[in-house]
Design a protein that fits this description.
Length: about 260
């Protein structure tokens, strides 16, 4: 027997009247509270709604659809963001997910699938929020603050994106352990990694660059070739081998990021 559904608060930004009508019927049946919006509203207004998730179609926003999506994705750490759109290409879907969207739904779609996907995203966000109840973590010169969804060095924010922070937090929680790419992807992105997907490598490269720029005395992210990554604060001048390893890692990840079909 499936568990009873928990009522959610959802905002739907879409102009597809047929889609909205059918989805509204299903949300009514589930006992959800929701608002349907025909155009973008200020991000602060979404925050004031105290919603669990927002489902949006970039076409309803207009020319600034992508910019708006990126802004919404960075609003709150526990806000689930889903995109439902017609005729999106693979590159568009990948772009949206890398901006921070939790899921992408291609129209036409069954309303029950939309409901299930919203529930799945909200569950992941709630699990993540419960993990944030732990105190700050300090590794080397980095202070990881789950309560602020940000990391700091010498009191200065690293200006991490949501996805970068989630990656750093996962690494920090597993300090000293080697995590394989598939496990990292499953934990941070929330679903199984597709064959050939280099998202983990790309985000590791971006995160490593930010960390080493602000804390050059340490090497934090160490690559274990063919396996994954280990997070530990080690003096960047400790051994010549460590320096050589970092250089090799960067070359490998840069090559992967610049390879055809790998968005950066």
């Amino acid at each position: 027997m499936s568990a009873p559904r928990v009522p959610l608060r959802v905002a739907v930004i879409d102009t597809d009247s047929g889609f909205i009508r059918v989805l509204s019927n299903r949300m009514d049946s589930a006992g959800w509270q929701y608002r349907t919006l025909a155009s973008a509203v200020p991000a602060e207004e979404l925050v004031a709604m105290k919603i669990n998730a927002v489902l949006l179609d970039p076409d309803a926003v207009g020319e600034g659809g992508w910019e708006y999506l990126e802004k919404v994705c960075g609003l709150l750490p526990d806000l689930g963001v889903l995109v439902a759109a017609n005729g999106a290409t693979v590159s568009q879907r990948v772009r949206g997910l890398r901006m921070g969207a939790d899921d992408w739904i291609s129209k036409p779609c069954h309303p029950e699938e939309v409901i299930a996907r919203i529930e799945s995203v909200v569950r992941r966000r709630r699990r993540h929020s419960s993990e944030q109840e732990s105190g700050p973590m300090v590794v080397g010169e980095i202070e990881i603050r789950p309560d602020q969804f940000q990391a700091f060095i010498s009191g200065q924010s690293l200006d991490l994106t949501r996805r970068e922070f989630e990656l750093l937090q996962l690494l920090g929680q597993n300090e000293g352990r080697v995590l394989d790419r598939e496990a990292i992807y499953q934990k941070v992105w929330g679903y199984a990694m597709a064959h050939g997907d280099r998202s983990v490598d790309v985000f590791i490269r971006k995160l490593r660059t930010k960390l080493e720029k602000r804390s050059p005395g340490y090497t934090y992210i160490h690559t274990h070739f063919g396996v994954g990554y280990r997070f530990a604060a080690e003096s960047s001048m400790s051994t010549a081998e460590a320096v050589a390893e970092v250089g090799s890692d960067r070359a490998t990840e840069s090559a992967g990021a610049e390879a055809p079909g790998v968005p950066v």
